[in-house]
Every structure is written in structure tokens, then in C-alpha cells.
What does this fold into?
Amino acid sequence: MATTTIDRATGVKEAIAACCDGALLSATQPSPDTLQFAIEKTVMRAIVASLVDNFEARFLISVGTDKRPITGDFAVSHVFSLDHDHLYVLLESPVSEKDPRIDSITEVIPGADWAEREFRDAIGVHPDGHPDPRRLLLADDWPEGVFPLRKDVPYNYQPPRAENVRPQMREPPAGASVLPIGPFFPVLEEPAYWRMFVEGETVVGCDTRIFYNHRGIEKLGESALTYNEIPYLAERICGICGFIHSTCYCQAVEKAAGIDVPRRAKYIRTIMLELERIHSHLLWLGIAGHIIGFDTVLMQIWRIREPVMWLCEEISGNRKTYGMNTVGGLRRDLPDQIKPKLLETLAAVEKEAIAVRNAIVGDTTLQARTKGVGPLTHEWAKKICAVGPPARASGVAIDARIDHPYAAYDEVPPRIATQEAGDTWARVLVRVAELLESIRLVREALLALPQSPIRAEIKEDIPPGRVGVSVVEAPRGEAIHIVLTGGHNRPYRWRVRAPTYPNLQALSAMVAGANIADVPITLGSLDPCFSCTERLETVDPRTRKVRVYSRGELLEISRSRTRGGGAR
Amino acid sequence: MTLWLIKTSLFCLLNVMIALFLSPLCEGIMRKLRAALHSRFGPPITQPYWDLLKLLGKEDLRSTGGIVYALMPAATLASVLLLAALVPMGVAAPLAFAGDFIVVLYVATMSSVLIMLIGFASASPYASIGSSREMMMLLSVEPILAVALCVGAFKAKTLALVGIVNWQEQNGPSISMAIAGVAFFLALQAVAGKLPFDIAEADQEIMGGPLVEQSGPRLALIRWAMWAKQLVLAFLLVEVFFPWPHFGTGLDLVATLVKVLMVLVLVMLIDVVNPRLRIDQAMGYFMRVGVSSLAALAFAVIGK
Amino acid sequence: MFLSKLREALICLKAGRVTLRYPFAPREPKPGFRGKITIDADLCFGCGGCANVCPANVIVVSDAEQHTRTLEFYWRRCTYCGRCEEVCPEKAIHLSQQFETATNAPEDMYMRLKVFMGPCQRCGRCFPPPTVLDRMMKTGFREGLRGGNV
It folds into this structure.
């Protein structure tokens, strides 16, 4: 397996190098499955187009890095995945400080829209030709010219407060009115602002403003924490896929540093990842029921889910933030006495999940609300680079566990569930199938669990300047962590892309022409996890700055907004 | 004359008291049933009383000025209590008179229209959408109530509700009245604002619909009006369409209460096992129910 | 359709009521639960290893007074990761089973521990024994000590 990968990788490397002609600055292979090409920024767009057309590359994310302390320039990197060859391709371009611009690739790949706006906000390199260069990451009152991920901006920088600043939102087309969904809305768990343009009950357009909860996690990881402290931060990127993020990060560092994780740790990571998928999908099924008003489904499915949470509490000490991952393996072992309990609980969950599935399959009122609702076509899913169950429900058969096997998935491979219809009902079916498949995977992994240490001993410091790309299949799709190692026992650059990031970009196409009543369930069917998508600015607790609004002030603010013309 | 006045006002008071003070208890029982089907314990059955007390004690925030807007929630509750006085509950209605079933239909519509107006008076887009949905539901559901009662009027050859009830008691069940009863029940599901038809107040989709800006005492009165309405219409359903067994004594009130409770339990059971329909789907559904209730009219014409 | 509704209703009824009566009945967490930190002041000898590894900077060590090392614990930021428990050579710091940590008194979230230390004979400042520090440096924890504490 390894040798064929290397041969294939060499072949692909030479093919891409040939494409670049004279603009190639360097071609390296940081890991057996990662190819890195440094090219001139002038040919970036052409080479991206050629990768997409000739190599079937799938766009993953862009990374903007401030490499001025090392090379004197900024670096913009576009990361692709060659799924069939199980390879990552990084196309990096140096961008000089005197001319911080690069050609936008959004016209070639619509899915790169937000990624480019993000590196514009983070390090200040402007994507030329981008169709919608508004702010994405930064708050609307953040001062111009201060780019947080540049190395000269401290992580606890607090800009002066601005008054009366609003996000620049588009105006509705003639004849349509505005229906704001968010920032506060009952079915949204986190703040996001979808400005729906409606005529009567039909949606004719949509504008988005999210990243209200941006927390600055990437900046923290580079400035204030060390390699082994970051898993705890990574775990808190998301409230439901925490273990996925900490595993993905640890895998990225292990890849960059060339650390071999012991087999038992890999198997236990697999088991915990699949357990997380089980309880996340059960949670989602309940929430989907709640969104369409079917609270009974919510209550019953969460009742079925609860024993899994108790199990996780027994294994890791906490229902959700397991704290088990560390660079090099795990800190906490799976006790042997938990195995029979694990199997018993999973058997009960499986039985009840099948009973619920058989009950809802014949429910016509439920299907009336989900069939044909929120369609995502196969072509658009590929163009917008959707991942996870929304992509698989539209017939795009991608799964990080098969495309880039990690942990123990090469020995315990899953079967991918796909559907063709691309509507909400298809997504329900895909997730139910994945849920049952995960139960099978945990059983198999438990059976094959080897006896070995759970942690690799790391004797030396991790050398700086190494790149590690790692993906993990979260319940929502593919999560990616890219680590560029640095000195002082911490990464130089840590890039996180959560699965909801590309999926949310697909929303506007999915709600076009839909009824307003279908918008919440369409959004819900993407299983959006905003905390993953946004990584918010922290407040330094040492300065203890707190602003408290008095009741009078709050009333005045809300009344003045109403008097000023109703909803914006 | 004065005896008649005293008797009427006493019975009026009885009906109004039942509508006012029994309806939170019925709502509490329904919530408890819903909780049991959700595999949880749920609040105590007296919870709605505590909810009302809490809301009545809060600040009265109004988003629009004017005396009309200020009085709307009270007017909603008043219209439902008027309806309660017109509907027989175990005995003849205190305000019964010839032709009163048409008045009943109008008064039943009044509270829905008032809630709609409250929604339109709010500045929120959610309230406007909720009110327009309420309007569409009203247009779909009220004709069914009218047709069902018309079937009864046709068979009894009288426009007085008490006449219809008496005719039913004497003549026993019939096909047309059974179909009309089922149609009325389905319309009750929508009027009571229960799933699958709680579209106007869909809180997951439009943040509470017409009531999004109501809080404190205004919300208390409106909620009370909604609970009272579902109870009163359940009484109407039971009295007009299923008045058997008939004792002719005070036991009638108890029997009616038991039947009303059964109807409300059935309403809740249907609520628990259904998701919410979209407004166009609901309107299509009620169109079909309307056609079936016209079939009931046809049966009544041919004498069945 | 009615059959599926019936099936759904049966699933609900068969389950019965499963919600716990908490807080009217106690809810014990499973063994191994990572709850609030407890410190045995008699065992702690002030090495500061816990302060070194805490990702949330909950523990602050200072040597303001002679012969005494002060450890301050700001519990409100604790993320219950358990690194302090892992590192402590004397097993003085320990994650208990307590999860009911809500309070509206900020003093509950703060603790100060003063440990009498052996001073250096030349400069008079306190120092932890070198062997413990050396051990910690090797196992991949934060490189270097926090400025001003040694």
C-alpha cells in the first residue's frame, strides 16, 4: 500500500510540476501523502484551473500565513485533495508586503469564496477579482488595516470601540421584503444573520453575515499555547465534535513531526470518533424533528441517545470534552471493564434507532415536510465543495475515512452511504445509515483492539518548519487541520477548517425559491455547527474588562431600532 | 322577569367561570399527557394557572400606541367569554335564542380576527407573516365549522343551537352528523392551534407569529383566550354532535365534562404524533375536509 | 400513515418516563469523572508543575514573600482537563466528583495556598528541587519556566 502511494505521488508530483512550467519555485513532499508546490502568484489561477480540470482536484481550504519573520513575505496557500490518489496538494505563493494582492480563484471554484475573504481579513492579502469582497471574519467595528493573524499584532489586542457600525448587507430586489433570520432566532443555536428576501411566503434571495462568534483560536494556538496544550483548545472549537478537532490537530502535528502513534491509541481514537458520530447524528435527528415541530421525535431520540453520553462520561470523565488526546497518542486508556457495557449500550441504541427509523419511514406528514425540500444538486455540491452527509446525499461519494485513511480506518474501513435525491429526506436517510454503520464499526474496532502502549514517547523537540495536513470525517463532514511547526514548542501557523464552512456557502442555492417555512429545516439539514465554523476573539481575563448594559440602555437601544424603521 | 334575569345571569356566570377557570386545568392535563408521551414528567397540571399569574404580574410593554391596541387582548378574551355564554354546557345556553348558531359562528371568528389584527399592528415581519397565515387558516377552517353546524341545522329544521341539541338527543346518531362531527373535530384541531396545524404560531419558523411582541399581561390574556376557546369549542362539538347519553338532570354537566376531556385528550394525541404542516399543505388538507363536509350536507339532504 | 403514527405512539408509551428527578434526587457521576479540583495542602511542596502545564492559566505562582511560595488558583477558568493532576509528583492536586460548582460569590472561585519553602543560602530566594523540574522538562510539556518565578 505504501509503495504504490509513493509511486503514484511521484507521478502526480511530476505531472503538476510539468504544468507549472517556469513559474515553479519548488516542489517538495513533506509527507508520503502531501505534495507542496511553491509557485509564482501570477500563475496561481491558471494552475488551479488546470488542477481542477485535469486532476479532478477538490478544493479544501486556503491558508494565509505571515511568513515575514522567516522569508520576508506573506504566503497564500490553496489546499486541494486528490481523492482517488489519496493525496493532498498545497499550492503556495509568496506575496510581497509591498504588493499584498493575489488573483482570486473564486471564479474557477465557487467554493473558495469564503476562504479568500478569510485570508483577506486575517493577513491583509487582497484577492483580486473576488465577486464579493466584504468582511467575513472580522467584526464590523474592527479597525481597517489591522490584520489579526499578522505576527506583529498581539493575540490580546483590543481595538478601540466603534459606535453605530453595521454589517454591509445587500438590499432586497424590487417587490421583495426582508425577513431576517437571526442573529437571534429560535432554531439557530448560535448567532448568524441570514437576510432572506421574500415575496409573500417565497424566498427570492438571501444574504449572509456570520462569524459573530469568531474567537481567534488560530491566533491563540500560535501565540499563547504549546503543542500539548492546544488539544484542549481544539476540543472546544466545537461543542459536539470536540474529539474530532483534537484528533485532527494531533494527527497534523504527528504527521509534521514524523511521530508514530501506537496501534492501540489509533483504535481507541477510532472508537471514540465513531461514538461521537453516533451521538451527534442522534442529536441531529432530534433537532431536525424539533425544527419541523415534531417535538416527540426530539424527546424520544434524545432519550435513546442519553446512554451513549453516560458511556462517554464513564470512559473519559466527561460527557463531551473528553480530554483524551495528546500529541503522540492518548492520555487516558479505555478500561477493559467498560467493553461489555459499551457493547450492551450500543445494542440497545441500535435496536431503538431501527425501531424509530421503521416508524418514521411510513410517516407521510414527516415526509411532506422533508421530501423535495432544500435540494442541493450534484453539480452545485461539487462546485461549492460541499462535504459530509449533504454531499453524500447529493451523490458525491466523498468520505475522509476512505479518501485519506487515518487512525485505524485502514484496518476497519466504513461503508459509505449515499443517496441521489439531494433533498432533506435524503440527508435524513444518509445520517441514519451512517449511525447504524458507526455502531458496527465500534463493535469491529473493539473486537480487534490490540494491547499496546497508548502514547508514543517524544524524546526531542519538534523541529520547526514542517507542514502537516490532516483530515478527519466529523459527523458534519470533513474537518481539516493544517499545522506549520515553529519554535518555542508551539506551531507557527495552525489552520482549522470545519465541515460546516463549505456547507453553509451552499445554503443560498438551496433556499432559492423555497417557502419560508422550509428555510429552518433546510438550514438544519446541513447540520450547521457555527462554533466550528467561527473561531471567536477571546478577552484576556487578566484585564477583566467587562461592559454591562443597564436595562434602560437595552430598552432604549431596542426601541430606537424599532422606531428607525422596523426590521433592517 | 327579575327571576328570569337572575337565572340567566347565574347561568351566564357559570358558563363564563367554566370557560375561565376550567380551561387552564384542561390545558394542564393536555400538557401532562404530552409530557408522558415525551417520556418525561412534565409540569404539574396546575402549571397554566401559575403561568397566568406570573405573566399578569409583569410589566405591560406595548410596541404601538393607541387605546384600541391597548384593549385588544382584553377584547379577545371577552369575545371568547361571550362565546362561552352562547354555547350549551350540559344545560341550555344562558343566552340562547332562535338563530343563535349564526351568532356563534361570528363570535367564534372574532377572536381569531383580533389575534390577526394584533399581529398586523406589530412592527415585526414575523408577526405579519404569522397574521397572514392566521388569515389563511381562518379562511380554510371557519367554513368547515359553518358547514358542520349547518348540517345540524338542516336536520333539526331549526337555527337555534338548543333545538339542534334536542333533535340530536331524540333521534340518535346519523351518518351526516357523524361526518359533520369528524369535520368539526378536525377544524377544532386547527382552531385550538395544535399540531399539525399550529402554523400561525410556529415558533421554530417565525418566532411565535402574531404574538411575538406580546408579553406580560397582554400575553396572559391572549393565552387565556386561546385555552378558553379550545375548551368552549370542545363543548360545542360534544353538545351538538355527540350529546348521548342524555340524563336530563345535573348529571349531564358531568357527562359532558367527561366527553370534553376525552375530546381534548384526542386532540393532544394527534398533536404529539405529528409535525407541523406548511400553510399550503394545510390549506389543501382543509379543502379536502371541506369537500367531505359538503358530502355530509348531501347525506342530510337525502335524509340520512 | 396511521400505522406509522401508531408505531411512534407505541415507542413513546413503551419507554415510560425516563427523566431523572434531579435536583430533587441526587445524580452521582460515574467514577473517573473530572470534576472540581481539590488540593491537599499538606502534600503540596510548591514545585509549580501544575502552573506550568495548565492550558487555561488557572494557577499563578509567585514568590513575593521570603521563604513562602504563594500559589493562587482562579477556578473559574478551569477546563477540567486534568493535566495538573497528571503532573503533580506528590498527588496533592486531584479532580474530584463534584460538578455542582455554580456560585454567585466570586470568592468561591479563588483559592490561595502558601507553602513554606527552603531558601537558597546565597540569594535567599526559594527554589524547587531540581530533579522534579528536570523530569518534567523531558516529557514534552511547556518549555521553559514562567518568567520571574524562579
